[in-house]
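From the shared-data thread, chain only:
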Amino acid sequence: MRWIILFSLLTNVSLVLNAQVADSREILQESAHQRLRRADSFLGFHFDFHATAADKELGKGFDTKLLADFLRRTKPDYIQIDSKGHPGYSSYPTKIGYSANSFVKDPMRIWREVTNKFNIPLYVHYSGIWDKKAIRENPQWGRIKADGTIDSTKAAYLGEYSEKLMIPQLKEMIDTYKIDGAWIDGDCWSTEPDYSPEVMKGFLTETGLKVVPLAPGEINYKKWLDYNRAVYRKYLKNYVDKLHAYNPDFQIASNWAYSSMMPEKVDVNVDFLSGDVSGQNGLYSAAFQARCLALQGKPWDLMAWGFMPIDFMGGIHSPKSLVQLEQEAAEVIAMGGGFQVYFQQNRDASFRTIDTDAMVKLAEFCRARQPFCQHSEIIPQIGMWYSVQGWKMINNGVYGWSSNMEGITNLLLDSQYPVEILLDHQIKDRMEKYPLIIVPEWDQFDVALKEQLLKYTVAGGNVLIIGAKAAKAFEHELNVSFVGKDSTQQFNMGGKNAGGIAGIKTNWQKVLTKSGTLVDGHVYTQCDYRYATEYPAATINSYGKGKIAAFYMDLSTAYNQYRNPVFNKLIRNVINMLIPDAAVKVAGSGYVHVVLGKKNGKTFIHLINSSGEHFNKSVMAYDELLPTRSLTLSYKAGTKPVSVTLQPSGGKINVKQIGNRIEFVVPPVEVHSIIEIEQ
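Structure, as tokens:
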């Protein structure tokens, strides 16, 4: 009997030891892969919960085994976790700042220990100038409003906040937890003019003015905003440089810096660019923001929200389905960027398991496409000018959300055109690469760039202006006469070649054509072909060796408010007259976005299924996409390719050579299909 018991004990010990050895081997295998820098990362997961004074017993429900299982199954390139949100309470036991109420376990230590076992980098989410607790405890750190009162939520750019709290806390996490980097939130996108004495004195000294303007519309207010932008960049440069000096390997991004919300050339040594796209309409938000980041010359990624914010501040959320996240991922990775997804932690800062299965499948979706997407380059087709001067005219904040281009981007994508967005410094250097440049509805343009654009047209380039105000700046070149002033009265637009007439209410301009100017579509007094006016919807004029065309209404706002296939048909008609031999043409569905890229000598045509309830604010989540019909593609390949392959499945595609183009049929697109062309 004793022998049996002894044998049983030895057997159990052996099993335990073998299991431990197996676990050790598994961990060694998992940790054997290289720890990637952000520049080489492709897929990550972001977790935060913005700790508050009410949060107690942090770490209580943290299960390290569940976290390890999540990392084992998803295999991310990095993890980002909460360290301090906008309320200002740290979600780890800081010795410098203001911690959440109480801790059972240290959540950050758990994340660090487990990610280290898998050799996965750990970044922290840290709220920058937006910090309610710090300002409440140290009001002298706060931004000063125009009325002289202290902003209770946001720090002054040049005050003591960053020196006494932000930088020391980040150093504390570097020393204590060996974190790999920081994603600074609540920074550029939350900026407002700072009337602190130091900032006002600097402004008056630099400009020679006697008075600081207090409100939009006042004389020199735009100069005041520009000065605040310079001061903000000084604040950004200060903490980036000091943290790099403290630890040269530390990697930093400021959320939305040098993006659509800060459309400037990168002049601070951030390690990567990033932003979190809209939770409500993530597919179109991701498509637009990816195009604003792709040409900035820095590694970049975009973050999708893993949930729809029904009432964000109230905590009422609806988890997104897998197909929604796959669509958003496709829009980002097709443009060559990295992708991350934002999931919330529990109120005790522990890891939430409800989303794990979806994250596993999403990771599989992204990894299958990584060989064709990561570090790919976009082949220039249509470039859209993001006028920084125009942006400044409509933006009455320091940085922020104002833009005049999303609707035009959506219209072009929904019409199956590959599009890139060019900031002033980019269009200056890259203009000649594009067969077509689009000028959206901006009130003002850089004069030198406008002249460069006209020279580009004379040399054989093509320009399309979309908007009454923007067209006014090109009246002579368009060869039209403007009749009266622009207005916002309702009108009808279209024609038989557009498949119908659409009612529209947006800013528009009546014009009359001159000799030699072509017309597409008309303005109608009623939705009836018999009631056409003499005013065209669009015109096309030869200018030098190129062409210049225009739509005389703000289609950007109109398209986002009420979509109509008439808009898509009109834009296709005009673009086809400007670039009849476009590199890629897609027929068969209006619910597909097209991206044309290259990598390792191969061409990739990305087809993204764009169907879904994106613009219906009553629909928080949908779990089914209607596959597109079979698509017919025509590509300007020159000679017949060596092979055409459908990726990531690897299926071969038969093509037909017609002149310098190839034609082929693509099976219905479920979410994201890639055509790989090897010449």
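Residues 93 and 99 are 6 Å apart (CA to CA).
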